[in-house]
Amino acid sequence: MAKSTRSKVKRSFRAKKRDEGVYAATEAARLQRLNSKLTAKVHDGDEESAEPVEGDAAQDDSTAPDAMELDDSEKPSTTKPLRVSTHGPRNSRREEWRRSKGMTPVPKSTRMNRQGLPAARRKSGRPSRRR
To answer: pTM value?
Structure first.
């Protein structure tokens, strides 16, 4: 098994070869080449963005009375966002209706299987459509 290129084992072995094995020199040369290309691109772009354009100055004025307040601007939030729990009952409309009528939200299964145990809700391993 695990013959896929997304296989974790294959990926880890490939990464190990890149770091310390056969391809380490090639990978280092590639990274150096890409790094120099990116730094050259950044330095070339600095002269263009150094002088502001007339339209940009009007747009950057955030102190205007009609300026929209952004969520993550200038106010660092120290509180963590509350996490929503996905565990537990979902309280569907059916369960709400049963609860309003005084019934249990989920009816108790009264079926028995051949061994005399309560029957399962789903028939595992059995296909749902006829073939």
So the answer is: 0.29
